[in-house]
TrEMBL record:
Any one GO molecular-function label of the UniProt entry: ATP binding
Biological source species: marine sediment metagenome
Keyword Oxidoreductase in annotation: no
Database matches in SMART domains: S_TKc
UniProt-listed Enzyme Commission number(s): 2.7.11.1
A Pfam family the protein falls into: Pkinase
Keywords in alphabetical order: ATP-binding, Kinase, Nucleotide-binding, Transferase
Protein name per UniProt: non-specific serine/threonine protein kinase
Domain Protein kinase residues, every copy: 1-252
InterPro entries to which the protein is assigned, alphabetical: Kinase-like_dom_sf, NEK_Ser/Thr_kinase, Prot_kinase_dom, Ser/Thr_kinase_AS
CDD domains: STKc_PknB_like
Length: 260
């Protein structure tokens, strides 16, 4: 939907997130850009992307944001399966950024490897806040319909049960998305897969994820249990606070430093 170009100004590099045709003329995608600007311009944390400007009155609607060197976690996972400690250390930083976001009253709603940028010697960054909303709110039915019409399977694979049902969302929904991401980092596969999108959504609502240890035996039992808790169907059964989750992942990363 967008292409990224790099420009310079005020002595630093910026990235442009530009809507391409036909989305450049679609009011819904203008709404995405406006929403991303509204959220990202209001938050300031080293693990969250900063957006400085939104431009809609042109043939190239775009956002001006910090330029972040590196690659997405999606690209990293396509190339290799990371060691357990490294994966945990990356997601600690993601959890730190999301904890700050939640403290500001927002939920990201689209936590997945594609939206996590990793660069050597730089903080891990969470990007793409197009779907971010205030906590305890739902998406409009119009937007939900468009999401399913556009068939965004990459997003569906990380959607919490309450998102699928369009119930009011809290930070526990981001816990679920981060849990799916951690599961994929550990095992090299998603907890739920299906050719039919409706079957995939049904699995998120009803099926239990296979134990990560079944796919990677060196995963410690404590970590296996924690990942499955993050994937609980009921939000109240998941870890309640990103701050707690970050601390737990940090301790597990240290404990796993000698594994592979």
């Amino acid at each position: 939907l967008a292409k990224r170009t790099v420009g310079r100004g005020r002595g630093k590099e910026y990235a442009l997130k530009v809507l391409r045709p036909p989305f450049a003329d679609d009011p819904l995608y203008h709404e995405y850009l406006e929403n991303e600007y509204r959220v990202c311009s209001a938050v300031k944390h080293p693990n969250l992307i900063r957006v400085h400007e939104v431009v809609l009155d042109s043939k190239r609607p775009h956002l001006v944001m910090d330029y972040v060197p590196g690659q997405s976690l999606r690209d990293r996972l396509a190339r290799e399966r990371p060691n357990i400690s490294a994966a945990l250390s990356w997601l600690v930083e993601v959890a730190d950024g999301l904890n700050y976001l939640h403290d500001q009253g927002y939920v990201h709603r689209d936590v997945k490897p594609q939206n996590i940028i990793i660069a050597e010697g730089s903080p891990v960054r969470v990007i793409d806040f197009a779907l971010a909303r205030r906590q305890d709110t739902t998406l409009s039915q119009r937007l939900m319909n468009r999401l399913f019409e556009r068939r965004r399977p990459g997003t569906w694979s990380y959607m919490s049960p309450e998102q699928i049902l369009n119930k009011p969302i809290t930070g526990q929904s981001d816990v679920y998305g981060l849990g799916v991401t951690l599961y994929e980092c550990l095992t090299g596969r998603l907890p739920f897969t299906a050719e039919d999108p409706q079957d995939l959504l049904r699995q998120h609502l009803r099926a239990a994820a296979p134990s990560p240890r079944m796919l990677r035996p060196e995963v410690p039992i404590e970590l296996d249990d924690f990942v499955r808790a993050m994937l609980a169907k009921d939000p109240l059964d998941r870890p309640h606070w990103m701050e707690y989750l970050s601390g737990k992942l940090r301790a597990l990363s240290t404990a796993c430093s000698d594994i592979d």
